[in-house]
Amino acid sequence: MSSALDSGADKSKIGRSCAECRRSKLKCDRTFPCQSCIRRGCANICPDGTLAATKGNKVLIARAQQLAEEVASQTERIQQLEKALEEARRAHGDISRSPPSTSNQPTPFPDLDKIETLFDQDVIETSDAIGSLSIGVDGQAKYHGESASSEYFQQLLPEHSEKCTPDLHDLGLPWEIMDLCNAYPFGLRDTAYNKWQFASYIPPRARALRLADLYYENVAWMYDPIVRQDFMSSIMEPIYGTPGPPRVDHITPHRLSVFFVALASGAMYEDNTSAAMISEKYFALSRAVFSLDSITQEVSIAGVTAIFMAVRYSYQIDRSGGENRWLLLGLCTRLGQIIGLQRDSAGWNLNEEEIQRRRTLFWEIFTYDQWTSIVNGRPPSINIHQTDTKFPKDIDASLSANGASDYGWHAWKYRYSASCLSISTQQVFSIRGHNYSIMLHMDRKIREFSIPSHLEAPIQALDRHRSWHPEAYRAMQQYCCLTERECNLLYIHRSYFAQAIQELPENPLSHKFAPSILATFRSACRLISSLDSLYATHPIQTSHEWFFWSGVFSACIVLGALVVESPQCHLAQEALQELDKGLCLFEKGSTPCRASMTVSVLIKLSQRAHAALDAAQAGIMLESSAKSSSPYNPDELQVLGGRKSVIAKPSRDSSPQVAQEQPTSFNRLRAQSTDFREQFGSSHPAVMEYYGALGNPGLILPITREFAYTVSGGVTDAAEWTGMYPNDPTNGLPSGLMGMPMSNDLQLQAIATLQQACFPEEQSQYPPNDQNGIWSDFIGQLGLRPS
Predict the structure, then answer these.
(1) Transmembrane residues, as ranges (predicted)?
(2) Which one of 225, 393, 539, 645 is at 20 to 30 Å from 765 when CA atoms are compared?
(3) Which 8-state DSSP code applies to residue 139?
(4) 10 Å Cβ neighbour count for 180?
(5) Which residue did the predictor score with more confidence, 243 or 653?
(6) How far is CA 229 from the centre of its chain?
(7) Cβ contacts of residue 649 below 8 Å, gap of 6+?
(8) pLDDT for 9-51, tens place per residue?
(9) Considering only CA atoms, which of 705, 694, 675 is closest in space to residue 464?
(10) Cα dihedral sign, 585-779-145-489
(11) What confidence tens digit (pLDDT) does each residue in 130-154 have?
(12) Distances from the Cα of 251 to the Cαs of 195, 227, 246, 289, 673, in angstroms?
């Protein structure tokens, strides 16, 4: 009986699946351990044991479905936002969409097509901001972007051609010297010539000192790549350091080149009839001796300095050498990068003298590169994000009235170029536009950048709060501070100014870009008025400074454009008066440095402006100024204003010539006290907000009263500030940044903070009709043509 029961139990056990297979609902072969448990690695618990329970596939599937639904929801939301953005752009007149594809063939990578489409649309939105291009019949081409200073466009016009420097063969130099000159700047790799051939051209010590003094008084006050003390110790001492005639045994060819170009720069300011020829002869010697050491084999600090000084010499004397300067400056920046000027040299254990020499040279090149890029309408060669070079010591610091230390001109110039000018170049040359509020933020940063009290320029001759320094070069440094800021503001506002006048010529001050109307108008008037005052105080030195007259030429173009296009504007009458006074001063003051065509250009502009205003006052509707111009008969103001244009050159001889910095008008501002609200009560609210934010509580028209160049706190005491930027209340940098030393890491952090403050990505959008090109499109509609 017992054996029968046991036999039945065994049969029942063999007939059932193991416990784990029953729990997992798997097929069991009932041979223990079963194959299912063996495959799953749990043979030791078969047939009676079970594994711990876990979440099943249904839970995982449910979670995956939930995530898929969230992805689909977010995708749909993105599509809705893109559609809304597209509708908003269309509502503002943005016609930047790419043309629809004519092909129905599917692409293997649809996501890539979407990315390319978005990029293409971004670029098309700014495609009109392309400036002017001059093309010769043989393919020669020359380009200036829309930001370029107006006089740079002038020599794109077919009838402009002038050369004011003597020919090399007229200098009386031997053929060996001319052969070396023709090898400049790359030099000769293998040459039989040597530096002793130049010893006979070195003047006596007294003569050299006189020309060096003229160089530092008339040229180096603006850009000083080699300070006087360094010049005396590293250049003059090796040549004249021993009794007897000058020697070249202990000086390299590139240092000798620095010596000759300094003499050339000083000689052109001598008061005699042969000054130009003597100056050009020394400059030829500088180029020739430079070619003895080929820069393709080795580069030195002296070599970079010599090329930079050659660029500055050409700027002072040669109206037709703009492209040569542009190329030489590009070479100069590349050579500077070869020797590592963009990296601070303190970490290389160099002596202090060499460290300061390298820092000074870098910041001179950087500042000139940034400014030249704006006035040429072409991107700069150096990016602020790619350097950690600290500022050199301020050897020209002065004490303010309250006993605090004020920056000298050069120290202020370096900090302004790093803080404001570099940001402006990013704005001007960005292919994708930026929000108008970002531009206004940049405007505020420029206006609030501190100027030391001794560098503040009078706006009028009878300014009771400021006066010109009795020394001419210091007075010109004062005007340089003003013109750098005002021209900077003029260029960043100019396209918005043009759009406002285009869209609402009857009352542009009611346009949403009305702040740019007043900012551009005010900057133009300040440039003219202040230079008028400076010319009355230092007429000889001012009349030779091409840079000053260049900025005012652009200012006159703006004033004339305002009157011609919008004669009913409240500002038109005063703009015309300022233009006329500027033209009068220009004719009598800019003779030593102006090009031949500039006076006729401004006369035509003044005549056109008078006709427009007279017609508006008589209630006569003149013919629209939006006239077309052919490549062979370009509209002169279209070119001067930087509008998108193509200019055909009729022959090989008239291949594109670069435009030089031309003079412009100078005059004095009228002293009025017209209440802003009474005169411009119908203006757009943005005008009130703009000037209110700048600290003008009375809302007085800015050109009629001293206005808005004060910064809370003034210039902080900074005996040796090696940081990158001053303490600007708008940039969110640490409050102590202005007056304390900074590490390289903190410098880079300051740069990043500053750039992020001015160009926050979350605010970036593309404004209607591309602001960077509006000025170019607008000014060409003014129909002043060359006779």
Answers:
(1) none
(2) 645
(3) S
(4) 25
(5) 243
(6) 31
(7) 134, 135, 136, 137, 140, 158, 655, 656
(8) 444 445 789 998 998 888 899 889 999 898 888 888 999 998 8
(9) 705
(10) positive
(11) 455 555 555 566 555 555 455 544 4
(12) 9, 18, 11, 12, 62
Rounded to whole angstroms, how far apart are CA atoms 78 and 83?
9
Nearest residue to 418 via CA among 490, 464, 366:
366
Coil, strand or helix: which one is 136? strand
Cα dihedral: 562, 566, 567, 571 (round 10): -60
Provide the CB-side half-sphere exposure for 659 (13 A, CA).
35
**CB-based contact 257:295 (threshold 8 Å):** no
Q: Tokens 């001015």 appear where?
A: 758
Contact status, residue 670 vs residue 574, Cβ threshold 8 Å:
yes
Alpha-carbon distance of 411 to 391, in angstroms, equals 8
* Secondary structure (H, E, C), 715-778: CCCCCCCCCCCCCCCCCCCCCCHHHCCCCHHHHHHHHHHHHHHHCCHHHCCCCCCCHHHHHHHH
Most confidently modeled range among 107-121, 441-455, 643-657: 441-455
Whole-angstrom CA distances from 137 to 141, 153, 636, 716 are: 9, 19, 20, 57
Residues 6 or more apart whose Cβ sits within 8 Å of residue 227 = 360, 395
Long-range pairs for 221-224 at CB < 8 Å and ≥24 separation?
Answer: 221/409, 221/473, 221/474, 221/476, 221/477, 222/476, 222/477, 222/480, 222/547, 223/308, 223/312, 223/364, 223/367, 223/368, 224/360, 224/364, 224/410
- Hey, what amino acid is at 425? T
Name the token pair of 589.
């003051």
SS3 state of residue 633: strand
Q: Write out the two tokens for 755.
A: 């750039």
DSSP single-letter state for residue 320: T
CA angle 752/758/643 to nearest 5° reads 125
- Name residues whose C-beta falls within 8 Å of residue 80's C-beta, 6 or more positions apart in sequence: none
- By the 10 Å C-beta count (0-12 exposed, 13-18 middle, 19+ buried), 537 is classed as middle
Distance of CA 242 to the CA centre of its chain: 47
pLDDT at 418 over 70: yes
Report how far Cα 640 is from the mean position of its chain's Cα atoms. 19
301-317 and 352-376 helices cross at what angle (nearest 10)? Answer: 40
Cis amide leading into 663 (omega within 30): no
Segment 634-651 mean pLDDT: 49
Torsion, Cα 292 295 299 304, to 10 degrees, reads 90
Please state the pTM of the whole predicted model.
0.69
What DSSP line would sit under 349-401, residue for residue? T--HHHHHHHHHHHHHHHHHHHHHHHHHTS--S--GGG--PPPPP-TT-EE-T
Whole-angstrom CA distances from 468 to 531, 586, 711, 749 are 11, 20, 21, 38
Place of tokens 């489409």: 117
CA 609-611-614 angle, to 5 degrees, is 105
What token pair was written down for 594? Answer: 């102006």
The count of other CB atoms within 10 Å of the CB of residue 374 is 23
CB 113 within 8 A of CB 107: yes
Token pair listed for 304: 């970079």
Distances (CA, A) of 42 to 19, 46, 87, 417: 12, 7, 63, 75
Other CB atoms within 10 Å distance of the CB of residue 301: 21
380's tokens: 């700069």
The 8-class DSSP code of residue 133 comes to E
Instruction: For 166-223, write each residue's pLDDT tens digit.
Output: 778 888 899 999 999 999 999 988 888 999 999 999 999 999 999 999 999 999 999 9
162-165-166 Cα angle (round to 5): 120
Beta-ladder partners of 647: 134
d(CA 670, CA 661) in angstroms, rounded, equals: 27
